[in-house]
Amino acid sequence: MSLTIFFSSTFHAFLLLCLSLLSSECFTIRTVATTKFGNDTDRLALLEFKNRIINGDSLGALGSWNDSLHFCQWPGVTCGRRRHQRVTVLNLQNLDLLGTISPYIGNLTFLQTINLQNNFFHGAIPQEVGHLFRLHNISVNNNTLEGEIPTNLTHCYNLRVLDVKYNNLNGKIPRELGSLSKLTSFYLRRNYFIGPIPASLGNLSSLRDLAISENGLEGNVPEDLGRLTHLTYLSIHLNNLSGMLPNSLYNISSLKIISASDNQMHGSLPPDIGLTLPNLSFFSIPSNRFTGGIPVTLLNISKLETFDIGDNSFGGTVPTHLGVLRNLYWLNIAYNGFESDELSFLASLANCSYLRVLNVNDNMLRGSLPSAIANLSIRLEYLALGGNQISGSIPTEIDNLISLLAFGVEENFLTGKIPPTVGKLQNLNELNLRDNRFFGLIPSSICNITFLYKLDLGGNKLGGRIPSSLGNCQNLQVLKLDYNNLSGTIPKSIFGLSTLLTNLSLAHNSLSGSLPLEIGKLQNIGFLDVSENKLSGEIPTTIGDCFSLEYLSLEGNFFNGTIPLTLGSLKGIRILDLSRNNLSGWIPEDVENLAFLESMNLSFNNLEGEVPTKGAFANPSIISVVGNDKLCGGIMELHLPICSSNSTKRRKSSNTKVLISITTVVPCCFLLLSCFLIILYWKRNSKRKPSDTPPMNDHQLLKVSYKELFQATGGFSMENLIGSGSFGFVYKGILSQGTIVAVKVLNLQRPRATKSFMAECNALRNIRHRNLVKLLTCCSSLDIIGNDFKALVFHYMPNGSLDEWLHLDVNTHRGSLNILQRLNIAIDVATALDYLHHHCQTPIVHCDLKPSNVLLDNDMTAHISDFGLAKLLLQVSNDSCSIQTSSFRLKGTIGYTAPGNLLFYTLLSMTIKLIHFFSYFLIRVIC
């Protein structure tokens, strides 16, 4: 019995000892785990958050988020100071993270701040965020989040800041958010919210900042917002709001900023606004329907910096003493109905030393322009007085306004000479004196304004010659001198602004002489009007080089000769007026192919022969040919006589002569080109030269990510699509540093697309030549949904492909190529092929040479592109004709692919193939 008790007691003691040791060991393990990893829930939630980042940044900004560090030491993570450390702040702003917000963020139950602003998060805001009742700050602005605001955010009753601006959120603003009584800042700007502004927002008793602008909100502004007694910032502009601004809002004395522009609101400003809003610094309500006048009490708001009420229906007089607002920075009362017989308020503004913008355009202001405007702030950048009834002259002291960028007094009754001191306004971008009564000469000093891009002196009484020094204005884009008394010839120097000038209007003057041949240099000219002058001579054929022309008026001059055939090259022309000249000959048939014509006036000339009937000539509403007695034919609505057989014969005879000329010239040109290629080949064999440009090393390549290419191309949008091919699409893009590039995105779903990518990389990585398209870099990564992504980034070729020029594509507005340009292109391609075949360390054969794979830069220099089918000749045996290549599949485009690809490669067969490629190409280019 005692033995049994002894064993029983011993067993119990042993059992207790084991349990004690086990408990101690478990406690030790748990302590170690807590010490090493902290709270496992928070750690796992953070790792799940990291797993939703898909752009590879986990290897960068979040690369140290692993078990080698305590999660409280991870970048962007802050923990509380208590014994059991929990995550309180998640701050990952400005890291360019791309992905979705993980719902596991809801497991970070001690979280007080979420700051994910300025990234690329998409998808919805997880409902689980509503579980984080300790949250003080949610900042997810400037991402691409979609969906609605979760209504259960009302559970975050400690929330102070809710910032979701600059996203793609939609739906209505949840009225439940009105229960967040501690909220101080509420930013919903620039999303897609619709519906009314919830009246419940008036319950946000702590609110200071409310920004709900740039959405699709509609209805009235709730009167309840007047209960927001701590409000300092109210932004509701660019919505569809109607009704009046509630009077209760004008009683919130703490308000500093009111922005309500671009809505459909009406009403008037309360007469006591200057008494109830003493702290107001920014008041902007332009582009609405407000009426009434400017209350005199406004002058009491000494802190006012911006007062913008433009484009409404205000009226009455402008307060005389606006100058008491000494902090005024921006004053815009334009496009209203203000009246005044004297402009003393302009003189009083000389006291506003911070003034930068003054715009009183399009009112009914009268009186003489005070000379005191020259005493306005030297910080003034924008001075707009146009569209009134102001008289007087521009003071010579205008050059005191040294910061002026734009000066406009158009459509007034100003007179006198343009003061030469205007030329001292070195920062001026725009000078508009149109439709006044200025006389005298155009001051040559204007040409000293380096940054001037718009000069409009039209509609005055200016005389003399056009200053040739205008050609020195190297930034000039718009030049309007029409409706004056100018004489003399058109200075050729103006046409030296070849890549800048887009609008040139010299109409209704007394200009004489001919239209200079240099007009063809104006590559970007879209509007050209020299009508109603005394110009003579023939219309220069070079006008066909102005490929961007949409409006061309030569009406009312003394031009003679025939209509240039090159007019058919103006594929984007909409308005064409050659009426009332002395033009003769036939109407070129190519003109009927101008697909965008809206109006063509050829009336009152000496044209003869048959009028075409196709294209533009089939629409009588856009064609006028009256006053040409020798014209015949055409459609019935033109009421022209029927052509005699002689007229038709003359037309055919003319066509025959042209055909004979072409068939004579083209073979001669082809013969000349062949001689050139023989000489080039002889020179290459007699003296071999290596390429003058070294191969590109890997370290010279730009480094770009998928995200950068996604941004550069506008999300690979259709607007930026410039081409497509067998293995993908090509997009135009602008990299962050401003470089314009062409991004070739491979369609990896196509068979052999990856091999094409590798072939092009291998072909281009070690070659550089002025006639080969320049590879800037390549990208092999994952796209936004985790799929493989491969792209090549090339230097952008603004003139597109040779194929577009050969086919006269109306969508690209390309023009035709003359024979010299065609020869130069053929020579460029021959030079590039010579380099590829004989001067590369590893010879390369381009197996798909065709016009669409030849790109043209600004100077019409040709560059061979698309090396996805290229063969690298890896080895040439010295004692045989065998050649090893990187591929043995049939390659190329039908019609351009050399026959015999299935034969084994010998030097002879390869030579035959190369001749086939290039000869077929030459036929397309030259013939």
Automatic annotation (TrEMBL):
Ranges of residues in domain Protein kinase: 716-927
Reactions this protein catalyses: L-threonyl-[protein] + ATP = O-phospho-L-threonyl-[protein] + ADP + H(+); L-seryl-[protein] + ATP = O-phospho-L-seryl-[protein] + ADP + H(+)
Annotated PROSITE patterns: PROTEIN_KINASE_ATP (PS00107), PROTEIN_KINASE_DOM (PS50011), PROTEIN_KINASE_ST (PS00108)
Binding site for ATP: 744
Transmembrane segments: 658-682, 902-923
Domain of life: Eukaryota
Keyword Methyltransferase attributed: no
Membrane-protein topology: Single-pass type I membrane protein
GO terms for MF: ATP binding; protein serine/threonine kinase activity
EC class name: transferase
Subcellular location(s) per record: Cell membrane
Cleaved signal peptide residues: 1-26
Pfam family, one: LRR_14
EC nos: 2.7.11.1
Keywords: ATP-binding, Cell membrane, Glycoprotein, Kinase, Leucine-rich repeat, Membrane, Nucleotide-binding, Repeat, Serine/threonine-protein kinase, Signal, Transferase, Transmembrane, Transmembrane helix
Keyword Disulfide bond set for record: no
Cellular component GO terms held in the UniProt record: plasma membrane
Family according to the record: Belongs to the protein kinase superfamily. Ser/Thr protein kinase family.
Protein name as catalogued: non-specific serine/threonine protein kinase
Organism of this sequence: Nelumbo nucifera (Sacred lotus)
Organism classification: Eukaryota, Viridiplantae, Streptophyta, Embryophyta, Tracheophyta
